[in-house]
Here is the input.
Amino acid sequence: MKQFVFLLCLLLAHAAQAQTSDAAFRQWQDNKFSMFVHFGLYSELGGVWKGRPVTEGYSEQIMAFAPVPKSEYEALATHFNPAHFNADSIAALAKRAGMRSVILTGKHHDGFCLFRTKTTGYNLHDASPCKRDLVKETAEACKRAGLNFGLYFSLIDWHYPYASPMSSHNADFITPEHHEYTKAQLKELLANYGPVSELWFDMGSNTPEQSKELYELVHRLQPSCMVSGRLGNDRYDFCVMEDNRYPDATLQTPWQTCASMFDETWGYRSWQERKDADGKAKEKIRALINVASHGGNYLLNIGPNGQGNVVPFEREVLENIGKWLGRYGYAIYGSKPSPFNEDFNWGTATRNGKQLYLFLSGSYPKDGKITLHMPGYTLEKGDGKMAAYLQYGDEIVLTVPASAYKDSLIHVLTLDFDKEIMPLPAKETRSAVLSAHNATPLCSYSGIDYYTNYKSTVGYVWNFNQILLKQLDLIYTLQEAGRSVDLTIDDTTYNLTLDEGKPQKMTPLPGTEWGELYLYGPEKGSFNDSPKEKKEWKKVAERNGTIACKPFESYWLMQEVESPRAQRIMVEIGAGNGVEVCVNGKSVMKHLNPYRCTFRKEQVILPLKKGSNRITIRLYNRFEDRLQYLFRPAETPVIYRKEVTLPEMLNGKSHTVTIRPHNPVSPHADAELSNLRIRLRRIAM
Ligand code: GLC
Here is the structure.
């Protein structure tokens, strides 16, 4: 067999081009815990309109949900006087809570500005009797208290006359006039109030150009200001989970969970039932631990009332969290995510240098034992007070008394090791074929707007144990052909183009039977929602069709395939704004299509088991009013194999392979490499 030796070129490992300084990133990530303050005209209403508690929607959006006529809402400004809003006492509370920054709603969706601005009279200084600028007061109070100060800024505006009208989803397009208005306000905010540690853009649906322009504007005026992912189109310094959501993975990008005290509202709600501040504090401490153990930053909200008073319940919760952080904050601030690749029932971990911190935040292990698999590390010192420690080779076994869990406090144990703790390698795969299905995905967050956002897979990593490795075969479809990828083997990166591969037919096994095709929908939801099993499927005659739909309405296809044996089959799938494919309930491929793409056809390899298989496809629609779909067996199922000979034989046992697209359009965009397989070839000596 003729063997191609392809040109392998060594690349210097390079981090994604960051606009913001490394120090700003580090500071932001090390801060870990911040205060969000939702305050505005809506605080005055406290979730009540004309005597009726408004139970729909968030209370800061009462104008939309009550609804309150624009003129009546805006008239509130003429007597809004939050005499008790005391920025110094809010900053002092943040400090007591162990928070490191305060993010204030400079302008929320209602368009009312808490800062003095030349762009509109609809601001606290000019429209209200109090003549105050709360952005200024809060920025200065934070400075005095040694806290970072950041701003929430709504990209939609219900006051500005030339903006898109109010909608039910808040992810409206931004008119050119509105974009200019935003720029003018941002220039003021970034010039007049000293350093702004983060700009927390929210909602709206920018075009890629609008997002880029605002991102660059912020960095031109304040290079160290961290920009939130809700600016849209992957322009961000940190991404934000959907409201009150927690990730289930460590992401390859700075990220944040924003949370309110009660999921139902961010702005003050006078009729909110508030009980058990201790229980609430514990819930939020657990959330903070969860976020820190996945490497994130936690932004917890308070919603002062119309006079500017902090709600006593919220104060108590924060003070309780602060007490816990006073004792165990060393395991949170500046920490790195858990080195383990799995989640445990007993709790979770963070690390810092040679120290490993174990949070007993889960449930007490039945036998009282916590076992940690840490090959290559020697335990030098355990936290003798609460547990007994033993090391057997790679395993560290802790015996923890039940009392450690019964306490009202969530305890943390510290373990000292002989060297700096690094992320532990994922489980080794024994298979000689590396694929998306046996890889550890490298995850980030990618998207267009709040709804069209999801945990993306930007690359794959495998650990394997193979000696005398000299050659790899890269196997791919027409879909990947021509693409350039970075393949890192241990510490060496090779840039490869997936071309000149040898074609090979990939015919389905005889006896593979396709059933009818079914459709379900429409259904609303964001792209991040996890796939649910659908009912009420309706047969569709066409494998290629068009459905009338509305923006935000997605459809699902369902197909049963009978397979005589386990096999992989190639199919053709066509969808619009985004697509997700599940085989037997497991997601095997998911990505957004390039910005507002109305139809894209692609080849996808699906792993089938013996017997009947159920394939479901989500056709995600965010922007269109027609949805074109396609699902059929690939017409010409061909795979390509490219042989790659390494310059030197790989010796030794444990190796790591990472694959990522070369120069991706965005460091957060999905790698779209789920079809790719890498066969490890051992050379006979
Ligand atoms: C949402 C809401 C907004 C709230 C924000 C906080 O996007 O539209 O009212 O301020 O989340 O995360």
